Amino acid sequence: MSAPPKSVIATPFLDQARLRRRRWYWLTPMLILILYACVMGAFFWLQRIQDGSVMFITIDQEMRQHRLIWVVIALSIVIVIALLILWRYTRYRSEAEAALIAETGFRRAMENSMSTGMRVLDLEGRIAYVNPAFCRMIGWNEADLIGRMPPFPYWVPGMHDTHMQTLESVLTGKAPSSGLELEAQRRDGSRFNARMYVSPLLDPQGNQIGWMTSMTDITEPKRIREALTAAHERFMTVLEGLDDAISVTADTNEGLELLFANRTYRRLFGAQTNGHDELLAGRRGRYTDESVEIFSASVQRWFEVQHRMLAWTDGRRVRLQVARDITERRQHEEASRIQQEKIQLTSRLTTMGEMASSLAHELNQPLTAIANYSMGAVAMVKSGNTNMDALLPALEKAAAQAQRAGKIISRIRDFVKRSEPRRQAIQIQTVVDNAISLAEIHSRKRQVAISHNVPEHLPDVFADPILIEQVLLNLLKNGLESMEQSAVETLVVSVALHDNQIEVAVTDRGHGLSDPERLFEPFFSTKSEGLGMGLNICRTIIESHHGRLWAVSNPEGGTTFRFTLPCVSNLESHQQLQSEELPT
Fold first, then answer.
1. Whole-prediction pTM
2. Bridge partners of 191?
3. Is 181 or 582 the better-scoring residue by pLDDT?
């Protein structure tokens, strides 16, 4: 069997003690053996001298001489055995002393290298031992402490009663196993906090002979712990005071595990993961920085939810969710939308009111033509001239004029009726044609022609046709009014495709504007009878369609109004990019 491994730390101490033992332990037995050999040599030498002298020898003396020799031999054997036993005992004792020296040196070195202060109290409370670390901790020397009775010099002045109670709890064995926290004073007057642990000190027979105490300076750890506790309390106070519902969950085999939830979350959803899972809305993996609006059926409220993946304190990947209650904002937005629709309807009604006289003239022409064609057909029938070749064209023209009047009335009815906004894919050509047909009533009244340039095969736009017609009609009306005193008699409407967006431009040759952007301010108008809300409503409509409306000065004179609308393909790809979830 292989020998058990030896301690590496104690080897230097054992080797040093073993060297001293091998040098000196055999000297005493060897000196005794040499002295014994000298005595025995002298004895046999004297015995040989007596044997050589015949006159001294008798029979009785010879018998005594032999007996003496045997006794000496026996004593010699006993002495040799005793010397061997002494030799063995001396060797054993030398080894024990060497081990004791090594153990004592090792323990002394260990105690001296410790940063924990060790102190021994006897059963009466007297200091019996202190290690260097304890002396360094309090600043007093070992000679100043050994044998001292309470009060000890490191007790804080004015707190002797507290220290005495602590000492009594130590001497009576009532000190808790978790340790005692106390305040001590160094020799220079500075104070520090320490934690003291107490254990009974026993002799080899198992009898208690005192108390062993160990003290650790916890001033800096306590300061750091108090700072961390204060920071944690401040952080938790902020989190608990937020109106947002904050929750952190981890994915486990059994489902979601709720790791943290602030007060708002607990008030709304309780201390369960149902609310987090509901607001998660089936999303998994990593999330974009954009927030999503989700309706919670369990609490009947709208939330703006943001998700993050982060590393928890134990290294796990967890889900952080911040949900802000936007129910009131949604209600305000809905009320604002309804109010905006009312304003838009009012604006269209105001536009139709301003066009009432012109509309009457516009409808009067087809109605008069219908009446004339009908009267001519009646006259032909009454005269008996029922030639179908002459009668049929008149009736066809009357029907065409009736259809023209019906289209005018239908278009106006669609324009002014109140309906929910319905965004759909529409052709910009249709919107431009309808708006120009309505504006032609004003153009004929002011003797200004409307020219339009719409390229073929333009992509569709995603918009509400009635609202976009309202915007374009308002811009056409403003352009026609500004050109009432102009020498140029043509208003130009042009459409172009730029960056996957349809741009519509209305260019007039009127008096122009010094600051075109002020036109979009609420209640700002260049007309004495204007309310200053028309262009502001138009900009709101265009921006709600993810477009832009602005005005620039025309270098040739007048003003150019431009607005953009996203194409259907561009809008679909943008929405798909927003809702796309990155895989884990």
1. 0.40
2. 185
3. 181
